[in-house]
């Protein structure tokens, strides 16, 4: 029985580290292309920060698990736990911000195209990194100790889940279920799939701890795969580089058109696939 238990534990740990490695490779590739290859735009700013937060989550999980295996209980574990919850919260907030922004672009296209501040994405990303830092600092300051994890998860659930559900519903109705003839872009497909994965793995309070260490791990690791698979879909050439796939998805043009004609969102220009 001990041998069987050890074998199962070793198998789960191997799957865990393999998932971490694949997730880091995928998110690292996204970071490379968005930092040094693809031209910056409001969407890539969000996705760049999301990939950075997801990578930080994976690194923290990897290190925390490694310390637990060697039975290390020093202050390093506490620091890693705080860094994990910082990155975890920022990742959830960034994904929520992306869903809200794209929802606004569909509901208020004229405002989004003509009146949206150019630096809004950068400002929001900075705030979404600062906000969980201040929240974690407050929780540590008031000595909640072991309740930090529950407090962070509950706060994230209350702040993010209703907004993500509403944004997902609006995007699905306006982009996929509209009575008007509409050509939906690949980015909206990517976003909706990512939001659905987030809702499936990132929010249920009843399996909160499992989601943090396994479900959320899978969700953030699969994001780069979603980008690649949806980006390659329906492309004329079967072999496309990852740079071209990301460029086609995260283009600054909003590829949502009504009635078969270019909408005001893309400035009257057709977006080629």
TrEMBL record:
Homology family: Belongs to the G-protein coupled receptor 1 family. Mas subfamily.
A GO CC term attached to the entry: plasma membrane
Keyword Electron transport: no
Any one GO MF annotation of this record: G protein-coupled receptor activity
Transmembrane segments: 12-34, 46-70, 76-98, 119-142, 148-173, 185-201, 207-230
GO BP terms, alphabetized: G protein-coupled receptor signaling pathway
Record-linked InterPro entries: GPCR_Rhodpsn, GPCR_Rhodpsn_7TM, MRGPCRFAMILY
Main location: membrane
Membrane topology, record value: Multi-pass membrane protein
This protein's record includes keyword Iron-sulfur: no
Subcellular location(s) per record: Cell membrane
Domain G-protein coupled receptors family 1 profile stretches: 26-211
Keywords on record: Cell membrane, G-protein coupled receptor, Membrane, Receptor, Transducer, Transmembrane, Transmembrane helix
The protein's name: G-protein coupled receptors family 1 profile domain-containing protein
Domain of life, source organism: Eukaryota
